[in-house]
Each structure stands twice: as C-alpha cells, then as structure tokens.
Amino acid sequence: MSNGATQSHADSQAWGETLVEVSDLQMHFPIYKGILRRKVGAVKAVDGLDFDIKRGETLGLVGESGCGKSTCGRALLRLYDITGGKITFEGQNIADLQGEDLRNMRPRMQMIFQDPQACLNPRMTVGSIIAEPLDEHEIASGAEKNKRVRELLTAVGMNPEFTNRYPHEFSGGQRQRIGIARALALEPEFIVCDEPIAALDVSIQAQVVNLLQDLQAEMGLTYLFISHDLGMIRHIADRVAVMYLGKIVELAPVGELFKNPQHPYTKALFSAVPVPDPEIEAKRERVILKGDVPSPANPPSGCRFCTRCPVAVKKCFDSEPQWRELGSNEGDREKHQIACHLAG
C-alpha cells in the first residue's frame, strides 16, 4: 500500500470488492484513404485488455509512449464509443450506454488530465471552471454552489479567495490542483489520472501525488494512475499493469512486480531506471531493446513484443501467448498475471 491511511481504507472496504472490471476491451480507430474515404485498416490502440480495479486501490498503468495507456483510460470513462468488449462498473456493463443513461453515470467517473494549461479554459475564472460540472449536472446553484467551490479549493490546498482569478495567474502545480478540484466536484468514486504530474516540475510532482493520496484516504477514491515515471508508480500504486502495443503483458502487486519482473519487456523497462546506489548501478545489467515499436495499425503476429524481445523463440512469432496467472498464490492481492510463452 502507498500509505497507512490508504491501507486502512482499503481494508475497511474489503479488497475482494471489484469496482471496475474490463473484459476483452478493444478500441480501434479506422484508417481512411482516397477520395471516397474508404476504410483500409485500423489503428488497434487497445486490443483485448482483461483486468479489474478494486475499490479504494490505485492501479498503475505503465508503458512506452503510443502503447495505448491514455486511450485505455479514456475508453474506461466512455469518452470513446469502444470497438468491443465489456466495461463493468459496480456490476453494470457501461460499454453500450448512450444518451441519458451514460450522462447519469458520468458523475461517478472523472479524469485528471496531463497538461493543466491545456485542460483549463483561459477565458473562465477558477470558480467557473470548478463549478462547471455542478452546472452541467444541475447539482447546486447560487450560494450553495459558491460554498461548494470554496470547499473544493480548500480541499486541494488552495486559497478559497482565488475563485475570481484566471488560470494564467497560477503556476503549473496550482493549475493541476484546480483540475483536481474540478474532477472532485461531483464526488466521483473512480478517477483516471492521465499522467497528472508529467507536465510539472520535479519539485512540485511529489506535492501533487501526496495530495492525491490524501484525497484517496479521505474520500475513498479509486484511481487508475497512468504514468511513465516508474519511481512514482512504485510509490503510489498498489498493483501495476505493464502495457505494450495495445496489450497488457504483465500485472502484479507493486512489490512483487518490482522485485520479480517476469516479462522481458517489463525487465527492459525496469533496467532503464537508475538505482541511487553507485555500487549496485555499476553491476546492473541493462536490457537494450533493438528496433522500433511496430505500428499499432499493423502489429506483429504472435506475441506483440516478439520483434524486439531478446529471448524470443519460434513459438513467440507463431502464436499469441495466453493471459494467465503465475504460481499458486491465493488472494487477489497476490495474483501475478502475464502474457508470455517463456515466463514461469
């Protein structure tokens, strides 16, 4: 667990309770060419994901740029009409929801975006930005709405007197706090954090992550935390999913994954993270991957990673590995899942 407060909350909610369950999730974007705009293919940004997220936990999602992490997060919130699969939220399949049914589900699922500068309307005051979800869903108005906005600013560590200021008057870290306040306005249960610290100075990143952890402990939030920063993922996540070219290749509790990575791609990712101890760093073996990431419009047959894998055998090129559990550990907290012919 990330901290003691989060641990106690998760225990009180029971680890076995699943909030979000994803089955064979697919998100393909069509490719059109020619004057007649005929479909000639599809970018398979997300291509068959199976995982779940427990209530009160933080699931970290890591992988290279372009592997489909952000698309996965947006698909879970139904910001896209998905190509296929199921997204079960508290027992209800929301994959096919439309219109008013989808609108009624929105307050329970929110998103914190990567770039706080780009996601805040420069023409609106901070108060109006935070109040926008309340207006859209007709939750509060007048004095009650103003009180709620001030409470949200206080909750994210900002002066409630800032309601009439504009986004350009704040630093990057403060703008991200405003974005977090807006995401909390409708009291959601599940939040997708799409690289929320990537655009911030290193000195500010820890403050924002600590704020997210405090809010999780206080409000019982559940996070999907998408990030390139493996050090931060190790700090904040309970479990970690490793994604490559539209597929999850490994998923395990954070301690287990960092101690005992099994997939060759996971090992390569972790080997790129410097170790602060010079003696250990000098003895470590670096895994250098050859070649470029294949196009998601034309992924390799067999294992997606086979064209760059340093230990691939013929079977890896011929057949796709099944998503399976390693070992016989009992309990969801101990499951180590992988898609690799050679692991275990």
The percent range for helix content is: 25-40%
Q: Determine the structural class based on helices, strands and strand pairing.
A: alpha/beta
The H/E string reads: HEEEHEEHEHHHHEHEHEEHHHHEE
Q: Report on the biggest sheet.
A: 8 strands, mixed
N-to-C terminal Cα separation, in Å? 25 Å
| Rounded Rg | 21 Å
Mean pLDDT: 86
Tell me the overall shape: globular
Describe this structure in words.
The chain is an alpha/beta fold and 344 residues long. It is 34% helix and 23% strand. The protein is built from 13 helices and twelve strands. The strands form two sheets. An eight-stranded mixed sheet has the order 6-7-8-3-9-10-12-11, sandwiched between helices. The protein has a four-stranded antiparallel sheet with strand order 2-1-4-5. Helix 5 (126-136) crosses helix 6. The longest helix has 18 residues, at 202-219. The chain is globular. The two termini are 25 Å apart.
